[in-house]
């Protein structure tokens, strides 16, 4: 049956696009680290300040504990440590300012002696096999701007002394085995712009001091066991949060707290962070109604609250002109949301992705289907309680690539015009355009979660297509193939 093949090929095309998208991100990433790794050679020819004895000894002590299968550290001999691979010195003072050893398969622990490199500005051990805990002496690196240790096996807690790194702008410790709570001293890092602690075993509440990080733009804490927002239980976040004293997180663009242990309501203070572009609270234990007030969040583009216990209706206010006027991505799948959708989302004109699968929505398929949501590319309404006919208006979605209506109580016939939906056949379109236009910052956060979610979902859809009684999808296929 050729129709079957054509049906599954839509999501596969989509999936391939996501994978391409992921690859793109990694390319950007690798380029960046290569440039860093090469800057030492730039300095080589011209500087003449030689290395400082104490720092040289500290580096040798650091090297002593490391396994180095690629023999990268063989160049670490002789007097002038400024000429060693991966080391960049200040050419006037001779102080080591950069330690750049990403992707070198280096193993072992970070020596206490690292604390002697007190002028270090960049410490990059991205993607090695570094294990063991942080030495407390890391707090001595008071000039550090970039600490980049992701993709290692670092364990233990983040030491309190991290709070002394007052110039730190980027702290990326993602993909390690760090445990315990975040130290409150994290609130001291007043220049921090990016904090990525995803995929560790960090637990407990977030320290309130995180609300003091006024330059923070990206906060990624997914894949941990963080249990409460900003250390405050219950529903009184907005009163207690240090949001009104001039230290608010007024630059925060991305907040990713997915796959944690959060419970209680979606905290209302979130709607006070007007700068948000990306908000992912998926795969937690959040319950109660979705926040009504999204006033002024004109840049919020991506909302993912999927896999929680949210109930009640989608607030009508979502997507009113003064609220969420940029929303492109709304995933509320696998919650307990109910009601009919007639008026809820009709103003979400910029929406590209809408996933409401696995809720308790009822009534007829809403009239906005194919009406006001011109750009919608990905629509999943499966596993709900929708009744009635599939409206002709569905054919108004000229960019639709993925449509899922299975596991509802729909009846009647399939509108023939569905077979004419161009993007269904060709792929490409609005969604890919938008994703390829994302800023690197957005991509960084999206990279960690979207392709994964999509893979899972698409697998689900494929599975539906192939094995389940997804009668609408199958009939839908037929109508496409009639063309
Ligand atoms: C440094 O850059 C050159 C080209 O400019 C490249 O051939 C070389 O592989 C780079 N070295 C490292 C260690 O990345
Ligand atoms: C010293 O370093 C600075 C910036 O790192 C660079 O602009 C300058 O050209 C260097 N001078 C020498 C003599 O290498
Ligand atoms: C360092 O190099 C510069 C030129 O690159 C030269 O003028 C200066 O005398 C050198 N200083 C020392 C201490 O060798
Ligand atoms: C880490 O480095 C290895 C090679 O040492 C490479 O194969 C792998 O793709 C890198 N992983 C990441 C996440 O960059
Ligand atoms: C911290 O740095 C100072 C020099 O700035 C050095 O004397 C001291 O030993 C360092 N402490 C540790 C624990 O590395
Ligand atoms: C945090 O900053 C304050 C004031 O800048 C300082 O007194 C305190 O020692 C810092 N705490 C830590 C743990 O670094
Ligand atoms: C977290 O990282 C470890 C390796 O450090 C990896 O095996 C695991 O799959 C990652 N978990 C998630 C949820 O990404
Ligand atoms: C936030 O910063 C202010 C002023 O610097 C300070 O008084 C307050 O204690 C800090 N709050 C937290 C929770 O660290
Ligand atoms: C998650 O929260 C539940 C209670 O809400 C608790 O029993 C469980 O231990 C928590 N898990 C972690 C890893 O903190
Ligand atoms: C929204 O984004 C624009 C463009 O990046 C920026 O100029 C504006 O300040 C942002 N608005 C808020 C409330 O952060
Ligand atoms: C939750 O929403 C429902 C309707 O959607 C409403 O009846 C109820 O009062 C709301 N509950 C709270 C606590 O706001
Ligand atoms: C993507 O960027 C291009 C060029 O900047 C622009 O013409 C196009 O409209 C953008 N597409 C979307 C979907 O934002």
From TrEMBL:
Domain Leucine-rich repeat-containing N-terminal plant-type: 53-90
UniProt keyword Transport present: no
Matches recorded under Pfam families: LRR_1 (PF00560), LRR_14 (PF23598), LRR_8 (PF13855), LRRNT_2 (PF08263)
Primary localization class, coarse: membrane
Cellular localization per UniProt: Membrane
Keywords, ordered alphabetically: ATP-binding, Glycoprotein, Leucine-rich repeat, Membrane, Nucleotide-binding, Receptor, Repeat, Signal, Transmembrane, Transmembrane helix
SMART domains documented for this protein: LRR_SD22 (SM00365), LRR_TYP (SM00369)
TM spans (from-to): 7-26
Key word Ligase present: no
InterPro entries (alphabetical): DNA_repair-toleration (IPR053211), Leu-rich_rpt (IPR001611), Leu-rich_rpt_typical-subtyp (IPR003591), LRR_dom_sf (IPR032675), LRR_N_plant-typ (IPR013210), LRR_R13L4/SHOC2-like (IPR055414)
Signal peptide: none
Coiled coil regions, renumbered to chain: none
Domain Disease resistance R13L4/SHOC-2-like LRR stretches: 161-223
Membrane-topology descriptor: Single-pass type I membrane protein
UniProt name for this protein: Leucine-rich repeat-containing N-terminal plant-type domain-containing protein
Organism: Rubus argutus
